[in-house]
């Protein structure tokens, strides 16, 4: 997933890893975002399975509000936040 994103300008590496997964569940009500994700993973047709026993949960957040940076305007236009924990990925844009 990281290879589809632009190179980060600021990185905080906590040396953590997600658990091994074979399916993902995207936590969003935005149908448009789901369609974009499905197009991105077109070659993994079975990866979207929210009823699987332990899918990796991906939360999409349409806000960068609590994040403070030097150039806030540029960050709102081009920035993103990606937080990866053992059982969840939170992607804010």
Summarize the structure.
This protein has 93 residues and is of the alpha/beta class.
Please give a structural write-up.
The mean pLDDT is 80. The longest helix is centred in the middle third of the chain and has 10 residues. The chain is an alpha/beta fold and 93 residues long. The radius of gyration is 14 Å and the shape is globular. It has a four-stranded mixed β-sheet with strand order 1-2-4-3, with no helix packed on it. Helix content is 18%, strand content 20%. The chain is built from two helices and four strands, in the order βαβαββ. β1, α1 and β2 form a beta-alpha-beta unit. It has one domain.
Radius of gyration: 14 Å
C-alpha geometry = globular
- C-alpha termini separation: 15 Å
Helix share, percent: 10-25%
Overall structural class, as computed from helix and strand content, comes to alpha/beta
Largest sheet: 4 strands, mixed
Count of distinct structural domains:
1
Count the helices. How many? Answer: 2
Residue windows where pLDDT falls under 50 for at least 5 positions: none
Strand-residue proportion: 15-25%
Tally of DSSP β-strands: 4
List the secondary-structure elements in sequence, H or E.
Answer: EHEHEE
Major sheet strand order: 1-2-4-3
Average residue-wise pLDDT: 80
